[in-house]
C-alpha cells in the first residue's frame, strides 16, 4: 500500500493494538500537510490530532514581538496534539508544517476516549510524550550552551530522521526562524558545513553529503534525543525501513 494511504506509515498508529486501530480506522482521515500550514495556534484548542507520515511538523514558541524559535519536531514517529490527551487542552506553542507531505488526522474525541481506557494505547502515547519532553529539554540546553554550527547539525539530523531522503527543501530564512537566530548566522554556519564537505546548499535546497561526518560534528544533544526515542519507541527503525523500502 502506498505510504500516503497507509496509517501504519505512522509509527504510533502502526504500533497500536489491533483492536484500537480497528476502532480508529473509520475516523482516520488522510490529509495533505502543506509547508507552512498551521495545525495549532498558541492557546487554541485542537479539534483533531495529527499523525504525520511523510511530513514534519515544528513546535514553535512565538514571542510577543513576533520572534520565534523551534522547540521540537515531530514526524512519522509521533503525533501532534498531546495537549488533547494530557488534559491541558491548549498549549502556548504553535504547530507548523516544516516539510510538506501526507498524514492522517483523528477527531479529538476518538483520541481522548481511547486514551482514557488506560490500556496499551495510553502507555504508547505516554512513552512518545516522554521522548518529546526529552527533545524539548535538550533543545533548550543546546540553544544555551552549544555553537550555531552544532545547533544546525542537530537540526539537520533530526529533520533527516523524519524524512525519506538525504535532501531538504529549506531556505536560510526559515532555518533562522526555526533556530531563533539571525539569518546571517545561518549563512555562516551552513557555509562552514559546506566547506567541510558535509552538505551542499543552493537556493533553499540542502543535500547531506556526509551523514556520519554531520553526526561527528554535532554536539551530544542529537545523540541524547535519538537514544531516548529509540529506547521508548523501539519500532522507529522498523517503520523507517518500511518507508524507505
Automatic annotation (TrEMBL):
InterPro entries named in the record: cNMP-bd_dom (IPR000595), cNMP-bd_dom_sf (IPR018490), Env_Response_Regulators (IPR050397), HTH_CRP (IPR012318), RmlC-like_jellyroll (IPR014710), WH-like_DNA-bd_sf (IPR036388), WH_DNA-bd_sf (IPR036390)
One Pfam family recorded for the sequence: HTH_Crp_2
Record-annotated HTH crp-type domain positions: 146-212
Record keywords, A-Z: DNA-binding, Transcription, Transcription regulation
Superkingdom per UniProt: Bacteria
PROSITE patterns (alphabetical): HTH_CRP_2 (PS51063)
rRNA processing recorded as keyword: no
GTP-binding listed as a keyword: no
Entries under PANTHER family matching the protein: CRP FAMILY TRANSCRIPTIONAL REGULATORY PROTEIN, HTH-TYPE TRANSCRIPTIONAL REGULATOR ARCR
Name of the protein described by the UniProt record: Crp/Fnr family transcriptional regulator
The organism of origin for this protein: Roseateles aquae
Amino acid at each position: 500500500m502506498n505510504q500516503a494511504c497507509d496509517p501504519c506509515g505512522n509509527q504510533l498508529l502502526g504500533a497500536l493494538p489491533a483492536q484500537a486501530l480497528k476502532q480508529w480506522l473509520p475516523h482516520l482521515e488522510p490529509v495533505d500537510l502543506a509547508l507552512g500550514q498551521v495545525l495549532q495556534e498558541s492557546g487554541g484548542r485542537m479539534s483533531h490530532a495529527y499523525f504525520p507520515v511523510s511530513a514534519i511538523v515544528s513546535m514553535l514558541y512565538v514571542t510577543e514581538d513576533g520572534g520565534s524559535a523551534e522547540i521540537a519536531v515531530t514526524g512519522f514517529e509521533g503525533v501532534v496534539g498531546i495537549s488533547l490527551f494530557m488534559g491541558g487542552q491548549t498549549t502556548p506553542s504553535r504547530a507548523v508544517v516544516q516539510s510538506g507531505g501526507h498524514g492522517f488526522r483523528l477527531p479529538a474525541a476518538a483520541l481522548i476516549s481511547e486514551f482514557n481506557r488506560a490500556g496499551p494505547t495510553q502507555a504508547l502515547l505516554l512513552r512518545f510524550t516522554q521522548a518529546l519532553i526529552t527533545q524539548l529539554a535538550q533543545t533548550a540546553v543546546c540553544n544555551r550552551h552549544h555553537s550555531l554550527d552544532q545547533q544546525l547539525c542537530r537540526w539537520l539530523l533530526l529533520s533527516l530522521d523524519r524524512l525519506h531522503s538525504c535532501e531538504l527543501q529549506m531556505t536560510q530564512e526559515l532555518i533562522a526562524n526555526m533556530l531563533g537566530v539571525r539569518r546571517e548566522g545561518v549563512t555562516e554556519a551552513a557555509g562552514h558545513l559546506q566547506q567541510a564537505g558535509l552538505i551542499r546548499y543552493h537556493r533553499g535546497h540542502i543535500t547531506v553529503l556526509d551523514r556520519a561526518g554531520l553526526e561527528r560534528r554535532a554536539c551530544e544533544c542529537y545523540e541524547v534525543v535519538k537514544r531516548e526515542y529509540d529506547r521508548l519507541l523501539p519500532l522507529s527503525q522498523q517503520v523507517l525501513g518500511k518507508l524507505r523500502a
